[in-house]
TrEMBL record:
<comment type="function">
    <text>Part of the ABC transporter FtsEX involved in cellular division. Important for assembly or stability of the septal ring.</text>
</comment>
<keyword id="KW-0067">ATP-binding</keyword>
<keyword id="KW-0131">Cell cycle</keyword>
<dbReference type="GO" id="GO:0022857">
    <property type="term" value="F:transmembrane transporter activity"/>
</dbReference>
<dbReference type="InterPro" id="IPR017871">
    <property type="entry name" value="ABC_transporter-like_CS"/>
</dbReference>
<dbReference type="Pfam" id="PF00005">
    <property type="entry name" value="ABC_tran"/>
</dbReference>
<protein>
    <recommendedName>
        <fullName>Cell division ATP-binding protein FtsE</fullName>
    </recommendedName>
</protein>
<comment type="similarity">
    <text>Belongs to the ABC transporter superfamily.</text>
</comment>
<dbReference type="GO" id="GO:0016887">
    <property type="term" value="F:ATP hydrolysis activity"/>
</dbReference>
<dbReference type="GO" id="GO:0005886">
    <property type="term" value="C:plasma membrane"/>
</dbReference>
<keyword id="KW-0132">Cell division</keyword>
<dbReference type="InterPro" id="IPR005286">
    <property type="entry name" value="Cell_div_FtsE"/>
</dbReference>
<dbReference type="GO" id="GO:0051301">
    <property type="term" value="P:cell division"/>
</dbReference>
<comment type="subunit">
    <text>Homodimer. Forms a membrane-associated complex with FtsX.</text>
</comment>
<keyword id="KW-0472">Membrane</keyword>
<dbReference type="InterPro" id="IPR027417">
    <property type="entry name" value="P-loop_NTPase"/>
</dbReference>
<dbReference type="InterPro" id="IPR015854">
    <property type="entry name" value="ABC_transpr_LolD-like"/>
</dbReference>
């Protein structure tokens, strides 16, 4: 049973063409995969459907076999706890410390301060940011800032992590470091779906790759096939 399933999903924005057309695929628990394709191929749209930032025009997106079309109102926030999101520009609060940025999702949930502190310390260490808790994001390097963004996405222990061009602003060495960090997540049970147009980086990771072309799923390449190329 997949953690995420797209069943013949199409998405058409008002006045536009199909941004996604009849897309079907399944993501297993603990699987890491990439989604790639040209600019405008529909990568961001696909990730938005998972976060309930957009709704499909046709077809169904299922999370844990639950049709997301039925998730409305207060249950949208509950669903978003299960999906951690990492952005290209990390979207950190620049006037808040690393600690506060990472703690934010738990504060919003009303978790006890002691429990928040324990969790933040744990994830900050895991992301290699130990000792930087009091720093402001502007005092950190680009790679460190992105790791704070990943820590914030992971703090609520989501079942799935989605990332839209998470290394878009980083140099090749830092990009590889961040990718290795993502690759370490599935062994803890988190599935990871990363949109990237950096084909070199994607191929190096030797994971499953979904290829979008004008909204259609043009290819679904297994790690074994990738190794053969
Ligand atoms: N809010 C919107 N309203 C109308 N059309 C949109 C909207 N968002 C995206 N589109 C269109 O949908 C198509 C897919 O866009 P999307 O952003 O999903 O592509 P992408 O693969 O993420 O591109 P990029 O790599 O440039 O970010 C494009 O033709 C885009 O112009």
């Amino acid at each position: 049973m997949g953690i995420l399933r797209f069943d013949n999903v199409s998405k058409r924005y008002a006045g536009g063409q199909d941004a996604l057309a009849e897309v079907s695929f399944t993501v297993e628990p603990g699987e890491m995969l990439f989604i790639t394709g040209h600019s405008g191929a529909g990568k961001s749209t696909l990730l938005k459907l998972i976060q309930l930032a957009e709704r499909p025009s046709r077809g169904a997106v299922l999370f844990d076999e639950k049709n997301l079309l039925k998730v409305r109102g207060r249950r949208v926030a509950m669903h978003r706890r299960d999906v951690g999101v990492v952005y290209q520009d990390h979207q950190l609060l620049t006037d808040r410390s690393v600690y506060e940025n990472v703690a934010l999702p738990l504060i919003l949930r009303g978790m006890r301060r002691g429990e928040i502190g324990k969790r933040v310390r744990g994830i900050v260490e895991r992301m290699g940011l130990g000792g930087r808790e009091k720093a402001l994001p502007t005092q950190l390097s680009a790679g460190e800032q992105q790791r704070v963004g990943i820590a914030r996405a992971l703090i609520g222990e989501p079942r799935l992590l989605v990332a839209d061009e998470p290394t878009g602003n980083l140099d090749p060495t830092l990009s590889a470091e961040i990718m290795d960090l993502f690759a370490s997540l599935p062994e803890r049970g988190t599935s990871v779906l990363i949109a990237s147009h950096d084909l070199g980086l994607v191929k190096r990771m030797k994971k499953r790759v979904l290829v979008l072309d004008h909204g259609r799923l043009a290819d679904d390449i297994s790690p074994e096939d990738l190794a053969d190329e």
